[in-house]
Amino acid sequence: MTQSQSRTRDPATWQSVQTERGSLWIFTGIRDFVDNIANTSPARLALTAYCLAIFLFTGLLSLPAASADGGVTPLYQALFTAVSAVCVTGLTVVSTAVHWTFFGQLVILVGIFVGGLGTLTLASLLALMVSKRLGVRGKLIAQEAMNNAGRLGEVGTLLRTVISTSVTIEAILAIALVPRFLTLGEGFWEALWHGVFYSISSFNNAGFTPHSDGIVPYQMDLWILVPLMLGVFLGSLGFPVMLVLRRHGLRWKKWSLHTKLTIQVSLILLVAGSVLWALMEWDNTRTIANMSVGDKITHSIFASVMTRSGGFNLVDQNHMDATTRLLSDALMFAGGGSASTAGGIKVTTIAVMFLAIVAEARGDADVKAYGRTIPEGTMRVAISVIVAGATLVCVAAFLLLSISGASLDRVLFETISAFATVGLSTNLSAELPPAGVYILAAVMFAGRIGTITLASALALRQRRQLFHYPEERPIIG
User: Fold this and answer.
1) Of 337, 349, 322, which Cα lies nearest the Cα of 413?
2) Between 136-145 and 42-61, two packed helices, what is the crossing angle to 10 degrees?
3) What is the pTM of this model?
4) What confidence category does residue 151 fall into, taking pLDDT thresholds of 50, 70 and 90?
5) What are phi and psi of 228, to 5 degrees?
6) How far apart are alpha carbons 172 and 167 in whole angstroms?
7) CA dist 412 to 75, 322, 325, 452, Å?
8) How far apart are the C-alpha atoms of 14 and 34, rounded to whole Å?
9) Do the beta carbons of residue 158 and residue 142 sit within 8 Å?
């Protein structure tokens, strides 16, 4: 039988073959597209992965099944919530407990988990899911995201370790929290849901709560507050640090320079933030003045941990003194560790700039720390991250001031909270018109994607230069 006879006698079979080829061609095209991005532009792949996740969760949150009233949630509210979840921020324009059904809260929780894996990790996983492999460039990207924590051939293992570490820590936190909710009179399934929700939200530094009044009812309950603080602090260290701790434990000499700087600066900011917050709020009758000394200390430590990126709050941010809000702005802008679930400009950026200032003051030619010299390229990246972050905050604050008409301190607080993916709020987000909501959503997205992607792109992009201009030093300062 000839091929033409086969087509004539069995047109249905021929049509199905053509359809199958067409679908395979589409899949092949998508695979080649992702492969091309993965091997040429890590920034575009990270951007693509996060955009796809945000569009997906926006669509799910727009469904009638996601809202408690059974209606379709307006686009700006669904989009803002999806961005806040995927970018692990925690800012809300509607109450998480009141507006969303269990399905809606589950969508938010999955978004938090996915977004908490990190931009480059998520981009690498997207490449693996679509093309079943990572090219050499893609492996270099993933390795860079993990601070070169393993050899190039171990990238797949590193990605699996990241996911397993997240799940393990979140499971431990949930095991610690569920019994407490049971003792407080909640049913088993309700306690289980709240324990899991808070464990994922805390480790990913998201700040979402399934209770309408947040964690304020538990402000004296260390059984709940301590796991939340531990989850947020561990999540803010970053996966590269956790991989080093998992491999070498507390043996300081075997830690990488990144691990030493991250833990040291994180502890310094934690202690300094706690002391300063306590001094500023100790006699504030609207916050902690009427509490016992022990509760005041607990609130101060909790505020210092959460301001760095956690987003849970025990006091109304509008009731704090102006000096405390300014301190919170600084701590939020600093953020947590690189390749972590925290935001901000990152503690290693602060460490590198401080070391550069010390070296310049001493007249040293090199910037050194713990027997290592920090390359000049790293300092250029740190400067770029700080300037880019400050510029984004200034532009967004200017736009929000013109739209909302709110006071500068509230607008600046909300803008930095969005940029640093913290989630602490003066309730300005819920008061903004749709235009302001879209601006804050863009700031959250840029804060989560921008500085990390910029740092990685600059670190991986090296251009050969065959000439060198004569040096001339301009006057500085």
Assistant:
1) 322
2) 70
3) 0.86
4) very low
5) -65, -45
6) 9
7) 25, 12, 10, 22
8) 30
9) yes
